[in-house]
Amino acid sequence: MKKVVIAQNISFYAWHMRLNLAKALRDAGYEVIFVSSSDPFIAAQHAPTTQGDIYSQKLDEMFEYHEVAISRKGTNPLTDLKTLYAFYRCYQAIQPDVILHYTAKPNIYGTLAARKLGIPVINNIAGLGTLFIKQGVLTHLLKQLYKISQQGAQRVFFQNPDDRQLFIDHQLIQPQQSALLPGSGVDLERFKPRPKKQEEGFTFLLIARLLKDKGVMEYIDAIRAIKPNHPEVRFSLLGAIDEANKTAIDKKELQSWIDEGLVEYLGVQDDVPAIIAQSDCVVLPSYREGTPRSLLEAAAMAKPIITTNAVGCKEVVDDGVNGYLCQIKDANDLAKQFKKMLKLTPKERQNMGKKGREKMRREFDEKIVFQRYIDTIKELEG
Predict the structure, then answer these.
(1) Is the pTM of this model over 0.85?
(2) Over the stretch 168-203, which tens digit does the pLDDT of each residue have?
(3) Which domains does the chain have, with CATH numbers?
């Protein structure tokens, strides 16, 4: 049986974002092995009564699992060299037939290790993060690392055409290496329309890690503009406090928003569909994405969405059809879109949601993604 490794930065994201792909690969006859780091801090936010990283444990129960220490946001060269060596030793022990990489450090250091061992690699560039938003020395270094490492990849998938073109324009990859995927896809069976409790008022919901680059500050400023004339409207935040990220929202600042009555913080939840079901519109004012999973899931549940006219976000919304687009880093324009959404009749919002569900079925069904991976793996097998 052919061995396929799925390598992700932390087990939480491997569990939530790659589990269905792993099952599809197993059903197609492959032995699937997960490689990731654990992150007890992220795990504790989702399962505070458990010890250690529950998501590493879950993966280990369903598949073979190997832990590799990865500093997600660190830029220490010595630490990254240790990560490279850890990938090398891990892949050397597993001897996989192909490796699927996700997130920056597996894409870079995992690919370098696999190339040394002669193992075929399929990478997924799922958004370019803070360093590509804020140009500087670290951005230049990251581009060079991508350029060196991606020479060892047999296929590089991108989740939007802008990111793909950026890599081609900067000669980080060869055009023939690359291909587009509709994000990570969305599970249309898990994320499907559910009735909302009628007694609850209109609710806007932002689902994202609490980072400035996700547009959280613009969300708060837009709420301040809306609240005086619409005190009955609720605004919620769902997502982890990612202290490892330099653009993370401070806990004290979050608490001040709660105390001010601006937002309800829902923390982190595993049952995301239940939270989406109780919202009326899902919002993501992000500065840049791959293809945001939260919007795919919301649209699949027939919720209208508001997001920025940004790379990765704009692909999910047909403006005025299944939601509205606003300008990046523009709280006033975001507030304007809030007002437009509130002025719609329930029937008009329902029609928007239906259009979103149709778009997800047509363009973003996760089965499309799974088949592309299976077809690509078979191509590499010759």
Answers:
(1) yes
(2) 998 999 999 999 999 889 999 999 999 888 667 899
(3) 3-185+365-381 (3.40.50.2000), 203-364 (3.40.50.2000)
